[in-house]
């Protein structure tokens, strides 16, 4: 600071003025002035040295407190992880900690840094950058570098005597330092490394020292002292001049006094410069607590100018939420004249918030008491933000864990969504919210919505999800969806995209909408509203993380549901297979096998109950296994893993001799699976076919003519011994011989084949034939073409006779033996008859084979349909067999459903019939008979056909007992054959039509039986009024569950329920109202129990519930839940409310309340009547 002053020239007279000697007066004044200036100089010099030390001490304490905060922050986290470097090596004293060293997914190596290890590295950094030295020491150090020096050892002794702080000045590396040391108290985390040294929590195990360099402060102090000396010398000289001249000129004395004041302000400016160099904010207040001085750093932290801060102005920058606490603490400091330590926030006009840690101590003057307060503030915003982020992340992790835990408990998306929404509202402090998911149409489906704040009088909470599901997605929600970005609106009323809430919706002041995304695609939304404070980026990030967790959890939950459904379908398929399937687990290194699982076909084939064989030895469950030698097969398959297939004959009581087809294989996890079928019918059919073939072979070999069967390519497929002898080929040589190569004259062959194509046969056609050796002989041929059911030529049967001798003697016989003409004619007739017989025999064999296959398929289908439990299973079974019965065709089976015919099974390629049509669109259903339409069978096509077909269609009604059940539709897309003349036909063959009619009759009978069985079963086991099970079904169920409970050593709980005051309801409202009550209560009971529980109407207004494997405690809880639900029922009959309905419950368990099930029911009935006697509408257990 520069000062501009006016120069003063003193007068020549200095000792006298106006003849008066001033020296006697001047000397005491000069002496007093000199003494006063010398005292002032000494006092300012002492004050300067004291303030320098105090400032250094304050800075040291602030640095120490900062280090302790870092250390406690590290300890509160259990340590932090840092990348392993040359300076951050793994701590050897944490080698027993399993998680000391970890690796990130990217391969980076991290090590655990404990508080002391972290502080030591911080001290190394600050020593190199700011020369502020720190040292952790201990009286019993683990590390050599932690050993105390002499001064530290003395300080440690003082701490053990109760001291809390020690400080001194010393020289380090030739530079002066202020050294501050405080005790290091043992905390819980210290014991990880120092527990073996015998320390206890609360003991002092060492100390932490901070050495603050004094060079800058001392240099500034020396500069200030020099200024003090110069200013005091100048003031002394001026004072002297003033004393000399002051006696005469007071005005000059006043000027000198002003010059002294300017010098004092210059001194204060130097002090302020020193305060500005300190990295913390420093302030000074008077005795009343009003601020009189702040440094520049204080102004930077508070966001105020020095002028704004003076007095009580600084309170304007204190955060409104902290103001009351700060004022109270400040006033307490002033009233008690004590120290102050406080953390609070400054908020600038721009909204920026700064966290500070403030300290203040009183300034005392001798004889004057407290003259003011000196304090400092430090910006701790980064530390606070780090702590808040850490707390928020912990809460976020806990929230995700809660979502994952709820996913295991919740059964529906809504329950899971409500649990997730509760977590979102809790973490963000929102009043209510909404979670929705985009459907395939791009509209929002509600997963969950909180009901808090809804106006129930205008809109019931139960209607809210429906409203949100159907409303157009617009406004703030629509903006978030269309942009794919989060929307934060802390002033919804003034937001440009605000649409307005639906009627009954609570008012929305603040809004946060976050899209839930997967692979960059928006899948849904999280909406939160009405947080007390403003939504910020932290809330948005929290909602985004939770949204990803919710989306993944929902998808996993749905995948689990699909897996469970697949398991259910697999079990149903396993149980409904026509083949017997059993799974065996090896025991004793394959010496024995236990039955692990078996399907229902095993029960049917082996005449056993699955419950009786599961868990038992295979030999005990099926004694025939050892007799048939199957145990060796099991062991061989289990050891080698090679599947084996075999057919066994065995004798069964009551059935005689039966045949079983076995197939064994080992699954990857070691179990052996056995699949077997009863193939007795198939073996018998094969035996009959073999006998027929042997008969045919006998007929062929008994003929005197050469007989051969030729396929459509002219190759021999079968021949007799005469053919081998006639043509000179070996028996096996004819297999690859073409019949066309046996003709000697190709022209004769072409003429013969032409007639064969025209007529389909030739008789006694004379043609020259060639033997293997090339010789030619005259032959007489009779040939007939063979066709399959569709009219396609499959081959021919040929009968040849050697006519050599006949030709030689023909002339003689014609002339001499005319009387033998009649015999010849007769012989020709015999030959023709034999030829016809042979042809019929061949056709019979072919038809027999085809018919046998069809009968086998029909029998298999019949067996499977008889084993079906309902029509749906029957439809699936029929869908398996129709393609096998009509493999070359396309078709469908329709069943009557609500005055319409619906396709339940189809096969083949493109179906030209509609999947659903009315009965009057089909001529077969209208006429009640088979209706065929084709090119060769002209007729009116049915209206349910959607396209024209070149082939033929066949509609067969499915009827039983005069009722139409459905329709069997067959379309012959290419039902034509090309004969030898390539003439096409287009119609359904008679054989196929007979087969279709037979299949239709069998399907009709099976479906009618299933429908009748289902009606009878429901009538026999269901209560006609309520639709729940009746007492007859209850008796069967209890007997079965009792055997199962005894076998598994489990219990059965019985709940007896009786509607209270039921007679009064009948008397007051009529029996129809009573029936309404019974139906409502039955529906509630049926919906309030598990799937394996059984609800029955016991009689009148009494109901009984059977809970397998349920304890008495769980049964009581279930009964109490049912009682509460019944009491909440609101039942109306003919527009009249029937009042409150209640029921009394009695609970008993097997075997606690009886060894027989009748005793348990009686106990439950007794408990129920006890509930009625004690006031009704309550649950009682058998005591």
The structural domain count equals: 8
Most strands sheet = 6 strands, antiparallel
What is the tally of helical segments? 32
Shape: elongated
At CATH level 3, the topology of the largest domain is Beta-Lactamase
Notable features of this structure?
6-stranded antiparallel sheet; Beta-Lactamase; 5-stranded antiparallel sheet; 32 helices; 8 domains; single chain; 1183 residues; alpha+beta
Please, could you describe this protein's structure?
With 1183 residues, this protein is an alpha+beta fold. It has 8 domains: 120 residues, no CATH class; 100 residues, Beta-Lactamase (2-Layer Sandwich); 100 residues, Beta-Lactamase (2-Layer Sandwich), CATH 3.30.450; 183 residues, GAF domain (Beta-Lactamase), CATH 3.30.450; 103 residues, PAS domain (Beta-Lactamase), CATH 3.30.450; 143 residues, 2-Layer Sandwich (Beta-Lactamase); 148 residues, GAF domain (Beta-Lactamase, 2-Layer Sandwich), CATH 3.30.450.40; 160 residues, Alpha-Beta Plaits, CATH 3.30.70. The chain is 45% helix and 24% strand. The strands form 10 sheets. A 6-stranded antiparallel sheet has the order 32-31-30-35-34-33. A 5-stranded antiparallel sheet has the order 11-10-14-13-12, with helices on both faces. The chain has a 5-stranded antiparallel sheet with strand order 16-15-19-18-17, sandwiched between helices. Strand 1 and strand 2 form a beta hairpin. The N terminus is likely disordered.
